[in-house]
């Protein structure tokens, strides 16, 4: 019996990295979905408050650099209020040529923490590079933080 367990362990041990890779791929797909649904479609393109609330953690902070290298932050509840006002003013859904889309050059997952790098396009123009931090709560990924780099006008593709 002992020999059976040793042989089984030796045969199954090489499969552990494959199983971990499968979980990571599943998590990366889930992260792309939550960013697309809550951030791109919910917050930026359609003004979908329910999608925003599902994908963003209530403690989310957008962090930027102001003049003099001062950091500023903007919580999700303020951003959501802006979206509500924008809906009243007819700014959502965005016009086709103003829609935001993203590409995902990198998603890195370690356990229940992840970072996603996004190329942020308005229409066909690369406008920002976003870095989003996410945590996994139970089975759901939530966006908890965002920093960004604004592409200067002369560098926009």
Describe this structure in words.
- The protein has a single domain, classed as Nuclear Transport Factor 2, Chain: A (Roll), CATH 3.10.450.
- Helix 2 runs antiparallel to helix 3.
- About 6% of the residues have low confidence.
- 39% of the residues lie in helices and 38% in strands.
- By secondary structure, the protein is an alpha+beta fold.
Question: Helix and strand layout, with pairings?
Answer:
Elements: H1 2-12, H2 16-46, H3 49-55, E1 56-65, E2 71-75, H4 76-88, E3 100-110, E4 113-122, E5 125-137, E6 140-150
Parallel strand pairs: 1-6
Antiparallel strand pairs: 1-2, 3-4, 4-5, 5-6
Helix pairs in contact: 2-3
Helix-residue proportion = 25-40%
Give me the side-by-side strand order of the main sheet.
Answer: 2-1-6-5-4-3
Shape: globular
The helix/strand order is HHHEEHEEEE
Question: What is the CATH architecture term?
Answer: Roll
Count of alpha/pi helices: 4
The CATH class is identified as Alpha Beta
| Beta strand count | 6
**Mean pLDDT reading:** 88
List keywords for this structure.
alpha+beta, Nuclear Transport Factor 2, Chain: A, 4 helices, 157 residues, six-stranded mixed β-sheet
Could you write a compact summary of the structure shown?
This protein has 157 residues and is an alpha+beta fold. The protein has a single domain (16-155), classed as Nuclear Transport Factor 2, Chain: A (Roll).
């Amino acid at each position: 019996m002992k020999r059976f367990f040793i042989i089984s362990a030796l045969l199954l041990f090489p499969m552990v990295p494959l199983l971990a890779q499968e979980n990571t791929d599943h998590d990366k797909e889930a992260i792309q979905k939550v960013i697309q649904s809550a951030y791109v479609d919910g917050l930026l393109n359609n003004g979908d408050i329910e999608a925003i609330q599902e994908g963003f953690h209530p403690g989310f902070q957008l962090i930027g650099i102001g003049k003099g290298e001062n950091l500023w932050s903007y919580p999700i509840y303020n951003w959501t209020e802006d979206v509500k006002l924008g809906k009243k003013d007819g700014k959502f859904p965005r016009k086709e040529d103003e829609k935001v889309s993203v590409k995902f050059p990198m998603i890195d997952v370690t356990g229940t923490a992840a970072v996603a790098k996004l190329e942020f396009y308005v229409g066909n123009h690369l406008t920002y590079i976003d870095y989003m931090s996410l945590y996994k709560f139970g089975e759901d990924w939530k966006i908890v933080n965002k920093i960004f780099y604004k592409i200067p006008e002369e560098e926009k593709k």
